[in-house]
Design goal:
The structure is a single chain. The chain is α/β, with parallel strands linked by helices. It has one domain: Rossmann fold (3-Layer(aba) Sandwich). The chain is built from seven helices and ten strands. The strands form two sheets. Strands 5-4-3-6-7-8 form a six-stranded mixed sheet, with helices on both faces. The chain has a four-stranded mixed sheet with strand order 9-2-1-10. A hairpin with a 5-residue loop joins strand 1 and strand 2 (32-37).
Length: 204
């Protein structure tokens, strides 16, 4: 695989490792879709994680403004899914440091650990494995900006937009592959189930 793999090569890797599956799935937010995507299956293999991290870092370096910030650039991710991506990107970019937001109480917004948080004026790259609904990244962006840090980019391994995907305005988005799943309304899903189609509940 090339240092900057094509979308087709990324999809092949995801399918081969079981990260991308086809069928009928119900996501935790109540959405129904014909695809299941969980990049953790691919990132079990260190070489796959490194390949994707290096490829994404090369896309980031192609932006001259972002490239100039790298020595002072810090990476922030939601835990735990984005943390491996964050460390992979920092290693590949030779960026400054990593912060992460975590959910201490289930169902409550993620937050930084005490004293482990971005500082005022710090340049921040938000990263995650997948951008789907954008719920976690929206929360992380909010708490980064509440501390006076500046979000200068958003990078994910795969962009899989939903009908309800959050907007990040003018912040540039970088990704290795875009996957457009087919989503069903509640009425459509119920009609399919009446014909014998079963939807598998997924956790994320």
């Amino acid at each position: 695989m090339n240092l900057l793999p094509s979308q087709e090569e990324i999809l092949t890797l995801l399918e081969k490792t079981g990260s991308l599956r086809y069928g009928h799935y119900k996501y935790r937010n109540g959405m129904y879709a014909n695809q299941y995507l969980q990049i953790a299956h691919a990132m079990r293999y260190y070489q796959h994680m490194k390949t994707m991290s290096v490829a994404l870092s090369r896309k980031l370096r192609a932006n001259t403004e972002l490239r100039a910030m790298i020595p002072q650039l810090s990476v922030v991710s939601p835990a735990t899914g984005g943390l491996a991506v964050a460390y992979g990107i920092v290693e590949a970019l030779r960026a400054n440091m990593v912060y992460w937001a975590e959910e201490e109480i289930e169902g409550q917004p993620q937050r930084f650990r005490q004293y482990v948080e971005p500082q005022k004026g710090e340049k921040i790259l938000l990263v995650d494995d997948i951008l789907r609904s954008g719920r976690n990244l929206t929360n992380v962006k909010r708490i980064v900006e509440e501390r006076g840090a500046e979000v200068v980019g958003l990078a994910v391994m795969v962009y899989q937009p939903m009908p309800v995907t959050a907007s990040f305005g003018d912040i540039p988005l970088y990704y290795l592959a875009r996957i457009d799943a087919e989503y069903y309304s509640e009425d459509q899903a119920q009609a399919m189930m009446r014909t014998g189609v079963e939807f598998e509940q997924v956790w994320v």
